[in-house]
Amino acid sequence: MMQLRRYFLACVLVLALPVHAAEKPGKAAIASAHKLATEAGFEVLGMGGNAFDAAVAVSAALSVVEPQSSGIGGGAFFLLHRVSDGRQVMLDAREMAPGATDARQYLDAKGELDRDKSVNGPLAAGIPGEPAALVWMAEHYGKLPLKKSLAPAIRLARNGFAPDARSLMFLGLRKDVIARDPGASALFLPKGTVPVQGWVLKNPDLAKTLEIIADKGHAGFYSGEYATKLVDGVKKIGGNWSLDDLARYQVKEREPIVFQYRGHQVVTAPPPSSGGIALAEMLNILQGYDLSKIRGVERTHLVVEAMRRAYRDRAEYLGDPDFVKMPVAELISPLYAAGLRASIHPKKATPSDSLPGFMAPAQGTDTTHFSIIDADGNLVAATQTVNLPYGAAVVVPGTGFLLNNEMDDFALKAGVPNAYGLVGGDANAPRPYRRPLSSMTPTFVVGPERTLVIGTPGGSRIITMVLEGILAWFDGDAPQKLVDNKRYHHQFLPDVISIEKDTFSLDERKQLQQMGHTLSEGERPWGFMNAVDWNRQSGELRGGSDSRGVSGTALVK
Ligand code: DON
């Protein structure tokens, strides 16, 4: 019976797919966290490239100009929609745990999690996926050779650029850890200190690394001379990578999570991201209310209750799909959401400890997202990261890139929060060759008349930010407005609604408290959302880059 129902649902979904293969925007839109990266994308479109070539250019340029957020030593998810055949796929270029991974490496003598080891230095680093993704995307989806699509990034690395105030602010935050590593401090702390604005960062080693990738493709980075240099360098500073780890690394093509919301198809990130499943749960719950008529506190309450329930399931079930069996079809089904919806009281908060399961708080720090629609209507939503700002804060001399600290995204010790306050258990335990669970949620929303491409950094808050962005888009907000909107977040435990300054009025806060909610206002804003949309009726393309980031740039041309 259940199977029949699923078959019926699948048929309805297929029939409901919006058809727009013949339509073209005629222009392109790119929104990214840095002007130089957005421009790199347009440069490559100008050479005759498509959205996927532009994504290679933007991604690689961000790796150069936003070293605090992402890089060649990190990982990424690229969500792609190809117009020519309607293919929708997510390239999983998430970092992979090295073969020597052993959870005990991250514990101190008393058996407690040693946070320094899980986020600083080479043990924090998974095997990078970013180089593999650039090559895969160019070879399988692009029109141009890597020599062309990587040219802007190579130029930026070699000629230099002036890091923006945000980069320097994060450098200040991570200065003490960077100072411990000769490779990282030679690059980022000239004269032993954080440089002032106007300083030009030239990175010829990174230019050479990118050239090797452009010349020799995947093998140029993951095997041979370059791999030997990298593995030796990692070992020398206390890491445990092997040549076999690098040789094993592969991009995985994953089928996206797809579901319907208010007559639109939502295409989003599958595991090892938790984002798409949580987004589906939340939107499926909210689909049962007429949100176009429900405003203010009443609406916030319902959205928070949806968040609370989805984040409970995240900790319980999700991990690397190649290692862990997950009830994905159930979690994203409207029937399951209906059950969750029925447990929501319209006027009273559900205490998280009355629901089964566990989880804790989160902080957004850095990572980066960009969104592209090209003149043919190809779409790319990409979120890429080295995890915390400046990753593990180590650079193998001669490579020019920081290693990530993505190992901290595993539940290194069951039930003990990671840097974002997220906890987990077996499903996300560190094991050789596993990919750590992520919150990165690159997403498309495709309706009969319009398309949205959206995503953001922000640690565990990524998923609720994408949710709020989508809800605002359905309310009629333009991309620039929806990326700038004030935010709120709930992740089951701690049982609080985190808010930015001025998210709610005093009166709204009082009403939410009367419903049983606890509010916690943070010092800093969070996220750096970049979104583009296309209205097929009017032909208009629009972009929005979060005003919270200083160099974010959305262009349409
Ligand atoms: O994959 C994840 O979920 C995290 N490593 C993302 C980190 C992040 O977004 C930090 N940024 N603001």
Automatic annotation (TrEMBL):
Protein name per UniProt: Glutathione hydrolase proenzyme
NCBIfam families from the UniProt entry: g_glut_trans
Domain of life, source organism: Bacteria
Annotated EC: 2.3.2.2, 3.4.19.13
Gene3D superfamilies: 1.10.246.130, 3.60.20.40
Assembly: This enzyme consists of two polypeptide chains, which are synthesized in precursor form from a single polypeptide.
A GO biological-process term: glutathione catabolic process
Sorted UniProt keywords: Acyltransferase, Glutathione biosynthesis, Hydrolase, Signal, Transferase, Zymogen
Pfam family, one: G_glu_transpept
Residues of the active site: 367
Signal peptide range in chain numbering: 1-21
SUPFAM superfamilies cross-referenced by the UniProt entry: N-terminal nucleophile aminohydrolases (Ntn hydrolases)
